[in-house]
UniProtKB/TrEMBL annotation:
Coiled coil regions in record: 114-141
CC per GO annotation: cytoplasm
GO MF assignments: zinc ion binding
Keywords: Coiled coil, Immunity, Innate immunity, Metal-binding, Zinc, Zinc-finger
Domain B30.2/SPRY residue range list: 265-460
Keyword Cell division tagged: no
Top-level taxonomic group: Eukaryota
Protein name per its UniProtKB record: E3 ubiquitin/ISG15 ligase TRIM25-like isoform X2
One Pfam family of this chain: PRY
InterPro entries named in the record: B30.2/SPRY, B30.2/SPRY_sf, Butyrophylin_SPRY, ConA-like_dom_sf, E3_ubiq-ligase_TRIM/RNF, PRY, SPRY_dom, Znf-RING_euk
Gene for this chain: LOC120065394
Domain RING-type: 16-57
One Gene Ontology term from the biological process aspect of the record: innate immune response
Family annotation (PANTHER family): B-BOX DOMAIN CONTAINING, E3 UBIQUITIN-PROTEIN LIGASE TRIM65
Amino acid sequence: MSLFETEGPLVLDLSCPICLQLFSDPVSLPCGHVYCSACLEKYMDTDTAHHCCPECQVEYQGPQALVKNFKMCSIIESYKATTTGKVRSITDGDGGDCHQGVLSTNQRNYASQVTELTVRLQMAEDQLRREEEREVEIRAANALLRGKAAKLLEQMTELTINYVTGMTELIEEELRPTEESLGTRVHQVSEIREKLREAQLRAKSLLTEEDSGVFSEGLQEAQPRIMELMAQQPLEELDHDNTSPESKVNPGRACDELERRSAELREGLGTAQRCLRNALNPSEVTFDLDTAHPSLVLSEDLKTVTFSTKKQPYPALPTRFSNFLQVLSTQSFYGGEHRWEVELDGSSPWIIGVCYSGALARSGLASALESSRGSWCLMWFDNLLRSFEQGHDVPLKRTPAVHRLEITLSFKTQRLSFYNVSQCSGKTHVYTFKANLTEPVHLAYRMMSGQPKARITVCS
């Protein structure tokens, strides 16, 4: 019978989940769960391939990851000392009336309550310490995330402002010449009008002059000016030179510049957006176009890879694979816990895993993903799954088809695990690498045959 059944709910918090007795030499796992040291050793002996917490199944690195829980030791000792000690009788001897017995019983009950409060207080203090430590960690991580997100959003704002400013200047450059030309014409016609008005007033004034001498003298003075004005370009001809403002815009140049600036904006915002997604989701994965073999086509969101019989006009880069149909992820990973699900066509052979980008050649036989000394990957070929670890392979089991694969990478436990995900049978463990990763790794994919249906999509 367990202690919980005989002594109440308090002991449940002080009991080992395996043996259901008070903790003996309690040890803590990295996940925070506590067990008797001996119980956990027996449990580990039954699962030599993987070391997982019996409750939450989080993996850990064997006995070296166990930490003695001195706090729990102190709580257990305090509990034992209080519960095993007897409350002394208020009266000496064998006698004692009923009242004395009631007091003794009440005192024992009260002592038990005090013990329970003491134990719970110690446990609450321990929990509070852990929660405060976690709060500090989370706030620090959130501060870094806020700063990174703010910087990226500022970049996106700056890109948009630069685009708006540039397009405004372009439109002004196109419209300004027409406006300046029209302004010049308005000024020109205005001057002609003023001169004509002045000559008209002068002529009318002479027509009312009754003194012939004055008239003759005024006419001689005004006549040259009138003849000069009459000889100038007629207003009708100026009017014929006028064209609509729209015809002054160069649509070819303006639209070409618009397209160029829009492409730059899309590229800049796309890059910033992907960086923001990476910040919000550290496990975000997209494929790197600069590494893709020319026969591989990437989707617009860079999450799907398909085969093309026509080689793509990708620029020749030292990062691009040239012999095998391979591609790496844009992101590299060197910490934390990551999980991805990929969807496969189910008929074309493939290799998928992680690798050190610098250790993988880009051409020749040495560029094959499974041959690299810096790769850990799973192959499905001819209905057989095989694992490749740093160039060494191990045949696993025959599998007719794999349509969906889950990949988990834990830097804490140094484990890379693969699971076959099926609608019929659910998630089945395929293989786990114990990988001592010493530098950042990229998700890597190799398409082993050029089939039109061959494809891979990163779903999450």
